[in-house]
Structure formats: structure tokens, C-alpha cells
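Page 42, continued from yesterday. The earlier attempt failed because a stray header line got pasted into the input along with the sequence. Redoing it now with the clean sequence only.
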Amino acid sequence: MSTRPVRMGARVYGIACVMALAGCAASPQPSTPPPGGTSTPTHSVSPAVSVDPPAAALLTEIVLSPPISAFGPEWSEVFAVGYGDAPELLGTSLGGDGKGIHWGPSYGTQLPDGTWWFVDTGKLRLAHYSETGAYLGDLRLREEYLAQGQYLQWARPLALRDGTVVLQSTTPDNPEMLLLAPDGTLSRTPLDEWLSVHTTDGTYLYGFSDGGLMVRIDPRTGTSIPVLVLSAITEEDLRISLEPGLLSVTLGTHAVQLPVSAAGADGAEVHLGIEAAVGTDGVANILLSGLIEKTPGEVEDVLGLLRLRHDGRATIDDLPALTSSADPADGLRLGVRWGDHRPWLMLIGEDAVRVFRRTVEF
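This time it went through. C-alpha cells are written below.
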């Protein structure tokens, strides 16, 4: 099993009231092309076995490991959608040097009804799929919604509780949001400044201003206000603060301050990126993606999923690599569907987009 209880202890600390969320790259993961558009859930998942919920422990420190070869049995692959010209397949677009690198879509998000919308940059559309990855149709973006009338520059989709999908402009000099309503209509929301959006409580969005100030954004008006906490789905306050080698988390009334290190790399500083999502069970799911320099010039990826309860008990799931050379790195790899408690992880792979879900209870 790839779930590790964190080391035992009982000391609890106070923390600062700042949230830091950012993506962090890891090593590419080879994968097997899915037949047709969607695949049977087999890729990068250990053989199915009976799994007991892992014992949770009180946190004293976090030790992250390099990517493992496959998801553990507490995870299952929900679906995979390959790349190609057929409507049910997602597109790719030239990225990076504009020559040999082909990027996949700019991620996707799951709606409260279970369906998924993907930002299919290569085909200039939003592509709609069922909960299990069956193709449901698409929405082609008209010229007025494309940069210079020909480029799709929307990314980081997030779903609100009413089924609205919110996308963020990737052009800093044109700050705005694109909203896809449940009835299929599109609308734009101008912003006063470019904001980096990271999460939602189902009504508002949360992210950072250009100056690093944490803000809450109304996606329908574009107004933003400074905040000190992240409002979670359960309406509990979640606060995350990140310093070199130290992660501080407050969930509700419980606060922990946790040293972060890498397995087998004593003394090496972990340069950490974070994504966070909270489900209806009140568990904070925190994706930790880091880089360490074991020796000068030798860089290694480390990552794990921290799952923290209100009482301070937690587990850490070791994970395989969650990025590839086809990853545009402009979306969120971690999420929880509105009304659910099971976290999902998304991989923009070299041959397909794959979605995995944690199926074992805490």
C-alpha cells in the first residue's frame, strides 16, 4: 500500500494566516495509450485488493518521497481520454519551443452533476464528458472569445455549486474571466487587475493579486476583497502558510506546524508547491509537490498527498508523477467534486488525460 501514516506525536502549534498555493513540476510518467477515446481504468494503478482505511496519526513532520511507479490500491483510475482528430478525443497544440513539443488541454474540472468540462486548447473548444469519460459534446468558442480571434487563452477551470464553470484568462494584460453557465451560454467578467485563482468554495473564488495579497473574488462581478482565510466547502476556515522547510495548516480550530523534508536527503531544502481542496467530510486534501537539490546540479522531485482531519490526525499518500512533457502546467491537478468527499487527481499525459480518484475512506 502506498499510504503512509505520518510519524506519531501530539504537539500542536499556532500558525500565520496566509495561504500559499502553487503548481510544481515533477518528472514525466510514461503511459499506455487508451484504446479509442476512453479507457478501462487500469493505467498507473496497483492491482485491486481489499484495503483497510489507513491508520491516521497525529502530525509532527512530513517526509516526502520521490514519485512511485503507480498509484496505490486506495486509488482507482476513473477514465482516460486520448488525443486525436475525432470529436470524442482531445486535441493537442504546439507549445514550449513551438516545434516538437505538443501540449495537451489546459485541464478540466468536475461539475456537481458529475460531468466534466475540459479546456481543449488545441481544438478551440470546451469539451464535455460524462462522469466515466463518455463524450457528451462540445462548445466551440467563437472568435470573440479567442485572443486575436484565433488563440484559446483560457485555463484553470473551476466549477461553482450551481454548475457554472469559471475560466481564467492566461493573458496578464487582459485580466478577465469566462463563465460557462449551466444552460450553455458564455459571458465575460472583467477584472481590475490580473489575479491568480486557485480554489473555490462553490460561490466565490480564492487566489492572489499581483502583489501577493490573498483575495476572494466574485466571479460574476469581478470584485475582489482581501481575506485572511480560505473558505472551504464545509464552511470551515482553512489556512495554509508556507516557509522554507515548514508547512503550517489551520483547519477549523486545529492548527499544526510541520517541518517538511525529503526521504534520503537529510538537510536538503524542499522547494514546495501546494494545491488544496476540501470535501464534505471536512478533510483537507493538500497536494505537496517539491524539488530538492541532493547535490549541486542534481535535482529530484518529491511529492505526496496530505489528508488532514479536524483533530490533527492525518495520512500521506505517496504518488506517481503527475505531470509530463505534454503538461501545459496551467491548471489544477487536485480537486473534489461539489457535494462529494473523494479527492481526484488529474494527469495531462503524453498520450491521454487521465483522472484518478481516491476510493478508500480516511
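Notes: The chain has one domain: 3-358.
Reminder to self: strip header lines before submitting.
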